[in-house]
Predict the 3D structure of the following.
Amino acid sequence: MAESAGNIPDTIEQMAQDLAAQLEEQSIENPVMVGIHTGGVWIAEQLHNKLNIMEPLGNLDISFYRDDFTRIGMNPQVRPSKLPFSIDNQHIILIDDVLHTGRTIRAALNELFDYGRPASIMLAVLVERGGRELPIEANVVGCRMTLGSNEQVKLIGPDPLSLEIQQSP
Amino acid sequence: MTRDNSLQVDKDGNLRHFLCIRGLTSNLLTDILDAAESFAGVTEQTVKKVPLLRGKTIVNLFFEASTRTRTTFELAAKRLSADVLNISVAVSSTVKGESLMDTLSNLEAMHVDMFVVRHAESGSAHFIARNVAPHISVINAGDGRHAHPTQAMLDMFTIRRTKGKDFGRLRVAIVGDILHSRVARSQIHALNLLNTGEVRIVAPKTLIPAHAETLGVHIFHDLEEGIRDADVIMMLRLQNERMEGALLPSEQEYFQLFGLTEDKLTSAKPDVTVMHPGPINRGVEMDSIVADGPRSVILQQVSHGIAVRMAVMSMAMRRVGMGGERN
């Protein structure tokens, strides 16, 4: 059931091909790519290379946009988000490691729209698992996992990348 | 002045109120500076706002006039999506005879979440923090001659951004009216907590507090000596409104001896950074050529004030379920 470290590179290669096919299908020529801190950025770095994207890679730390701030408070080690391009009218490929509840993606979408009005946003994730709490789905999925509600999957990296399944109490 | 740390920091080491630098740990100061670094990026967004404190109400409670500090606190709160209420108490209820506690109780009844307080009386922010409802956080925006911790933190942030994170290499000179300055007190505590190589204070004998050497600084009464080989010079404003009696012969004579000019700056390091908390008395504390010159970071200090205040407010905001809510 768990993805072993060995075939993550193959999974990312397949994601790159799927993304390329989708971009062609939608006639998108110069997309920009944004990774979600931390795991999403690791995967985005590889996809960014494979797809030969011209603009530098952007990264988002969505901590300021989380919906549970009033419960857990602020972690001061938030990295500044960096979008080294204007996102107005751009086609954005958003990358994350795991799609679970959908809340991280909701926060990322909100943050992106505070930078401007993109032409479109596409979502690619390494792992998709059940447990969605919002109507959010990925356009490109590396692999699917079936996990219990007390199990968490975590991407360890950046070199080498591996997936770890943790039991939450 | 109280040094009751439990007032500022909860048992898990999280910021509860931000009242003075004294009693805080260097780790907490570094956390504030790191958070400010992230918030500085928010101003690059088209929408210069994050939803962190949405639905929270912050009251700027100013018992003493201030434009820069109040407006940067207001902007910081608005960039965190909080609702802001500005109250200048000098012109409102105290004129009608309402007591401070009555004013606070009325505001508490309006379900506010945070007070940002400036008051001419030393210790007033501590007093308010001890007496407000437990779900309210208090930020000190300057109390009498005691402390102005957010000013000190924005100064530390400005030094870190211009000189790097290693304060151990730095020689910092604080110049001017140390005696009346809450800014200087907070700066000295913050610089020492961050392990600054050498902290100097430079002022005429009449403007240095008694026992200043116990603060962990070197004292100079000559400007050129005091700023020799300095990496950073932090000028202070002459607090005319706080002067009692003849502490100074005249502003002209002060400028002759302690005014910062291009000429005197040559004794500092060539890449020295010049700071001033504002508002500047041009031609008294420093020459306009220095204030507007390439070594001056005075306007950066103002921008940094917003990011630092965003950091302090979001870190001090009470969390639901952390023992802070009203029963």
